[in-house]
Design a protein that fits this description.
Elements lengths: L2 E10 L2 E3 L1 H10 L4 E6 L17 H14 L4 E6 L9 H9 L4 E6 L1 H4 L9 H10 L3 E6 L6 H10 L5 E8 L4 H9 L3 E4 L6 H11 L4 E2 L16 H10 L2 H15 L8
Parallel strand pairs: 1-3, 3-4, 4-5, 5-6, 6-7, 7-8, 8-9
Antiparallel strand pairs: 1-2
Helix pairs in contact: 8-9
The structure holds zinc ion (ZN).
The site of zinc ion has 3 residues, from β1.
Length: 263
C-alpha cells in the first residue's frame, strides 16, 4: 500500500489540476490513498503578484466535496491564507464539521510570502494544537520558506506535528535533515527528493519513522509519478519490507492519526 501525503487539485496560474487527472494518476501508478489540498488558495503567484481565485473557506469547501466523492482514496489538508485572511469562525466550523475529511493543515510560505515565524500563523497553530492536527509546510531555501523558520515554530509548539515538505527544496537537504533529526515533532516529506540514494541517506540520518512519501501529483500531469519510479524501486531493494511500509504508508498513518483505520 502507498499513501501519498502531498497531492493537489485546482486551477490557478499555470496549473489546472483536475479531479480526473488526480484520480487517474493515482490509479495508473497504484497509489492507494492520498492527502489532497486545493492550490487555488495561494495568495501570491510566481511573479510575487497577489492572486485571488477563491476565499479560504471556499477553497477548502471544494476539498471537502472532492474527498466526499472519493472517501476510499482521499482525505484533505486545509490550505491556509494567513496574509489575506485569518482562521475565521466559518473556517473553524468547516474543519470541525469535517473532522473525518481534514486530517491536517497545509501552509505554503512562498505562495503566501510569509515566514511561518510571523504572528499571523498563530491562530492556525493554536487551533492545530488544540485539535491535534498536523501541519504540512512547504520548505525551500528562499526568504520565506527556509526549514530554519519551521524548526523555530516546531520548538514553540511541541504538541503539533510539523512536516517539512521537500526538506528544503533546491538545497542539499543537510540542514533540513539536522532539524528533522533533532526535533521530535518535525518530520520530512519526500516531494521532489526523488533520488533513491538521497532518500536512503536521509532515512539513515533522521530515522525510519521521520519521513513520509509525498509527490505533488498531478502537478506535472498524469505521469508526475514517473519521476518517483526510480526512488520507489531503489528503496524497495535497499529497505526491509517493514521499513519500506513505514516510509510509504505507516508513518503517514501515525502522523495523521485519522488515517489509522485505512487498510
Ligand atoms: Zn505542493
Amino acid at each position: 500500500m502507498i499513501i501519498d501525503s502531498h497531492l493537489h487539485f485546482g486551477n490557478v496560474v499555470r496549473f489546472n489540476l483536475t479531479e480526473e487527472m488526480l484520480l487517474s494518476s493515482m490509479k495508473k501508478y497504484s497509489i492507494n490513498f492520498g492527502l489532497v489540498s486545493n492550490i487555488e488558495a495561494i495568495e501570491y503567484d510566481f511573479d510575487r503578484k497577489p492572486v485571488f481565485i477563491i476565499n479560504q473557506y471556499g477553497a477548502n469547501l471544494k476539498t471537502v466535496q472532492l474527498c466526499k466523492k472519493h472517501p476510499d482514496t482521499l482525505k484533505g489538508l486545509f490550505w491556509i491564507k494567513p496574509v489575506t485572511e485569518t482562521l475565521d469562525e466559518k473556517s473553524k466550523e468547516l474543519i470541525l464539521e469535517n473532522k473525518d475529511i481534514f486530517v491536517g493543515f497545509k501552509a505554503h510560505p512562498y505562495h503566501s510570502q510569509l515566514k511561518v515565524t510571523d504572528s499571523r500563523y498563530i491562530p492556525y497553530f493554536e487551533f492545530a494544537s488544540i485539535h491535534n492536527l498536523p501541519f504540512a509546510v512547504h520548505t525551500c531555501i528562499d526568504s520565506w520558506s527556509d526549514c530554519r523558520f519551521l524548526h523555530e515554530v516546531a520548538l514553540q509548539y511541541p504538541q503539533v506535528k510539523f512536516i517539512a515538505v521537500h526538506m528544503d527544496l533546491r538545497s542539499d537537504y543537510k540542514k533540513a535533515v539536522e532539524y528533522i533529526k533533532n526535533t521530535p515533532n518535525l518530520y520530512g516529506d519526500t516531494t521532489w527528493v526523488n533520488d533513491g540514494k538521497t532518500v536512503e541517506w536521509i532515512l539513515q540520518e533522521c530515522g525510519m519513522n521521520k519521513i513520509i512519501f509525498g509527490s505533488d501529483a498531478p502537478i506535472d500531469g498524469v505521469d508526475t509519478y514517473a519521476s518517483y519510479r526510480e526512488m520507489i524501486e531503489y528503496l524497495k531493494k535497499s529497505l526491509t519490507p517493514a521499513q519500506w511500509n513505514m516510509v510509504f504508508a505507516n508513518n503517514a498513518k501515525n502522523i495523521f492519526r485519522m488515517l489509522q483505520n485505512k487498510a
